[in-house]
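Running log. JK asked me to keep both predictions on one page so they can be read side by side. First protein, sequence followed by its tokens:
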Amino acid sequence: MKDEKGQAGRTVFETLLITSLIGIFLVIAISNFLTSVRLVREVALRSELGHIRTAVIIYITVNRRYPANLRDMVSEGYTLPTGSGLIKYKYIEGMAVDKDGNLLDTFGAPFTYESKTGWVKSSSKGYESW
């Protein structure tokens, strides 16, 4: 097609081709983004599980028993002596909790805790065995 000045414009085929290519690139970009988000959440979940499990070990060491639940570990703390005095710490802090005080994993599901063994795991589908 030529415009008023005699120059050729884009054809419908060219427009569809460009639109299709942009669509393909967007699908690839969104897919890569979602994969990256999932991988980051998985790494954060592993880290959180490690921190909570370490907190359970500290709780057992200080109190000589397993904690009744994870909510208690969020609200309770312990004191350690140092050369210049005492330092107070919470067993678990800085993690997401729901309205009932349950710890949430990076996927938004509550962590599960077995009070007889002290084992903490995720309840997110696909990550229950971590």
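And the second, directly underneath as requested:
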Amino acid sequence: MVRNFSCSLSCVAAAACLLSTLICQVSLAAGAGERVELARSGAGSLTVDAEIAGVPARFIVDTGAGMVTVDRSLFKQMRRNGDIREVKRVAARLANNRLQMMTVYEVSHFRVGDTCELGPIEIAVMEGAGRNLMGLSALGRAAPFTIHTSPPSITLSGCGSAPTLAAAH
């Protein structure tokens, strides 16, 4: 009986050691990634500096947006740099619940912060006045990601590992 009891304690100790090792590995993996500073806009949204098709811009981090969207002004600057190709037209439902037709383009690269390159990406262009939104098409490539509110920052784990769009289709 004592022998079985000591075996049970050994098994419990081994299981605790294994669990501790797994927790440590998960914690290390969760901490991995590139941390990029965010700023708060006047309306309280979190924004991030990025470079898209060679043009620096500020984007609202929007987990409710399906795609990266840019306003017409930013798109004109990007187009001057070239390396943009039209892909399709889509109907998008906006935050005000209206549908709007948008043209989707593939751009050569999208970099968040100074170092998080997400590779080529599809973007939608807002007609008229719109906001630059970093939606789930970019955030998904950088996943897993963590948004920190104090101080405002985002940790992106998928930097530099984005597949090419041709491979994704």
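Observation for JK regarding the second prediction: The chain is about 30% helix and 40% strand.
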